[in-house]
Write a structure and sequence with these properties.
Layout: H1 3-10, E1 28-31, E2 34-41, H2 60-82, E3 88-99, H3 107-122, E4 129-135, E5 144-152
Parallel strand pairs: 3-4
Antiparallel strand pairs: 1-2, 2-5, 3-5
Helix pairs in contact: 2-3
């Protein structure tokens, strides 16, 4: 078990199985010392997709929780690609997409759920640059999707 997985366990969390792609793409690619992880949608611990629009169907707090679940899937993909999260040197970039109703402008607060989880699991290696983008809708009607670029050891 990696240090990150121990930290997650201390928070009462565990990594899910790395989700399989739902279309014609690969979940991750290693290029040199970087790992590119495809978008991970928000699924709870039972595998149920967390759906809806922020600003109408989904509260900011529930969106933050959804982003946290998406970050767990992101870490699961990193482990699948690298064998262990101990190989994560630095999360370089996170892009967060939030399914947003017109007039909803709190995308950064939602994506904080993912950012906070990455820092909690990885410490300083989890600190990253990011964008938080509002979109009309996302695959499978999920409320949050995130992708990442990670520097590896």
């Amino acid at each position: 078990m990696s240090d990150a997985e121990r930290r997650l366990a201390d928070l009462g969390l565990k990594l899910p199985e790395a989700p399989q792609p739902v279309a014609n793409y690969v979940p991750h690619i290693v290029s040199g010392d970087q790992l590119f992880i495809s978008g991970q949608i928000a699924k709870d611990e039972t595998g149920r997709v967390l759906t809806g629009l922020l600003g109408t169907d989904v509260s900011v707090e529930d969106g933050r929780i959804a982003a946290r679940f998406a970050a767990l899937s992101l870490l699961a993909q990193a482990k699948a690609a690298l064998g262990t999260l101990d190989r994560v040197a630095q999360v370089l970039r996170v892009t967060g997409f939030v399914a947003s109703a017109p007039g909803f402008y709190e995308q950064p607060a939602v994506i904080n759920g993912a950012s906070d989880l990455l820092v909690a699991a990885l410490g300083d290696a989890g600190r990253h640059t990011r964008s938080a983008v509002g979109v009309a809708n996302l695959p499978l009607n999920t409320c949050v999707e995130i992708d990442a670029i990670i520097k590896i050891r």
